[in-house]
Design goal:
alpha+beta; five-stranded mixed beta sheet; four-stranded mixed beta sheet; 9 strands; globular
């Protein structure tokens, strides 16, 4: 059902620095840039894209929206979170750690990208 996720940016160069750091921290590639200047990250069978809005208006983050990235381990989530902070992201919500839920424990780490998009690294603890 899922094919890709795209977020808007007001500064593609700044976003490239930020998302390149995130993807490289988990073994992914730097962005490919398509002919329209959009950033495309292909990793673990998924596609994540960053674009300037095609309507020419300012990019805004979605209130209540979170983009989740699957992680292989808590350590990978921590590396992702650290890379994001060092590349201009902002830590939000609780610090990275285990969240106990009925029937499933999750390791979560949250960031906002430089444009305010909410991101989450998630590892299912089993």
């Amino acid at each position: 059902m899922y094919s890709h996720m795209m977020v808007g940016s007001n500064d593609i160069d700044r976003s490239k620095k930020f998302y390149d750091a995130l993807f490289k921290s988990v073994g992914g590639p730097e962005a490919m840039v398509d002919p329209k200047g959009r950033l495309m990250y292909i990793h673990n069978g998924s596609i994540f894209m960053v674009t300037s809005p095609i309507d020419g208006k300012e990019a805004t983050s979605g209130n209540g929206m979170t983009v989740g990235f699957a992680m292989e381990s808590p350590e990978q989530a921590d590396a992702w979170h650290k890379a994001g902070l060092e590349a201009g992201g902002t830590a939000i919500e609780d610090p990275p750690g285990v969240r106990e839920n009925p029937g499933m424990n999750l390791y979560l780490a949250y960031l906002r990208d430089p444009d305010g998009n909410k991101l989450c690294a998630l590892h299912q603890m089993g």
